[in-house]
Hints:
Blueprint (H helix, E strand, L loop, with lengths): L2 H18 L3 H10 L28 H10 L24 E2 L5 E4 L2 E6 L8 E3 L10 E7 L5 E8 L5 E3 L2 E7 L2 E6 L6 E4 L1 E7 L4 E6 L5 E6 L5 E6 L3 E6 L2 E8 L4 E8 L7 E7 L9 E8 L2 E10 L4 E11 L6 E9 L4 E6 L2 E6 L19 E5 L5 E4 L10 E3 L2 E5 L6 E5 L1 H7 L11 E10 L2 E11 L10 E13 L6 E5 L1
Antiparallel strand pairs: 1-2, 2-3, 3-5, 4-32, 5-6, 7-8, 8-9, 9-10, 11-12, 12-13, 13-14, 15-16, 16-17, 17-18, 19-20, 20-21, 21-22, 23-24, 24-25, 25-26, 27-28, 28-29, 30-31, 31-32, 32-33
Amino acid sequence: MNRKKYFYIAALLFTFISLSGCSIQEAISEKLEGSSQEQREQDDDEDDEDRPHRKEENRRSQEEEDFDSKNGGIFAHMNAEEESDASSPKSSQARTINNGGTVVRYKGNDYYWKYSSDSVEPDGLFNWFYPKENVENQLACRYPDGTEEILFTAIGKGDIYIVEDRIYMSPRYDLLQSVDLSGGSPLTYENMELCTANDEAGTVIVKTFAPPHQIHVIDGRDGSVRQIYEGEAEFVDTAGEYAYFSLNDTNANQLALLQLRTDGSGEMKEIDRFSYPPDYGSRYSVLEISLLGDILYYSYGFYDGTGGYFQIGGINSVKTDGSDARVCIEPEIIHAEEFLAEETGEGVLIYYVEDEEGSYISDWSDYAYSGCTVKNLKTGLTEKSSFPLSRQKSYVYLNGAVSGIMENKAVYETLIPQDLASSLGCTTVYREDADTVIIRNLERIGGEIYFVAEKSRRYPEGDVGWRPAYQRIRSDFYHMNLGDSQAELIYSY
């Protein structure tokens, strides 16, 4: 379980406990039992079949598409899927950018949820305010000319996947549903959790939320489901044409890295496996991956405690065909799951955290460390570095600006410049008597950026032990072009 998922579950439980005064076990039971509400059916009577496509001809310019292909490497899930061959019936019409993000570009239009002030929790620990369960929100489509249209209202929130003209969403944590682009023709998948999707291939990869543990492929063309693997494997991430899963084989005291094509073809393949100490290794999982050429680097370890602190782990590498498996950073060395693999003229450099307090729950989604250790895999030499390592595919508040570390490069790119971040009120210095503004759900789509500026204030009455609580004041959803000094406010909630 990675830090994001660990924190999400822990924060929800502690928030629930603080409000109800029940035990952790009672909180878990309540969470599981409270998910049986039937889903709202959509009214199909209105003929809206063409509505999501009415401005499809206003596609972004080729210049912007070129910008995206050259500069889309900050976030792996934000990269555009490759264009289909011109002879394919889908051709360029099926192009999807940032599939699985909170904003998805599909056929030139941008899709996202619009929340109301009542659809998000009013307070939360560590400045995190989650969308409420079983609350209806609006699914919006923003066209290239900046106009917006509400396509439908449904119980849905968070990340969006679009495959074969169908939107996949999670009405609740253990339920997956797909609808057409007007919100009609719903298909429901009980006990399913979405892992990743490949619009070009028309496939959606899902795993069961509860036993029996299985991985399935949904055919986006007809909604059919095909089991492809049975076992308690956890989805890690995608890299290239593959999805990767972590399998902890506690019977053998070994951790395995599994690989599956995102187009759903072939079978699940084990490409690496190693033994771990039996006293704590049973909690190991693969946490982050990074692809350099045909070599996949991955960190592993585990989290523990109510603070969600990373404990210990290491970094390995293996070729995508399963050959040449190597230990890059020995077990029990790294103190954070974040790492960076960079190709240089002197060999591959691995940046990792060794001496600092490692990954933990914080107010911002991610943060930059004050320094790290760098190992040259060719020479085996290590040295300290002042480079402020952070998580790839994310963003941090660094030197007064919001920036993202570039893919496989020890370089940051500014996403929200200092002046704009300052005008929004961004800060990492918290005071009991002042409001706090944190950037959430930043999504980069080509040369454009969407983000939420979330304002809150301290709420000591809601603290749970040492865990600080906050009350949400307002959330502002913005759009801007990369490099601009101003952002357009789309709406507030």
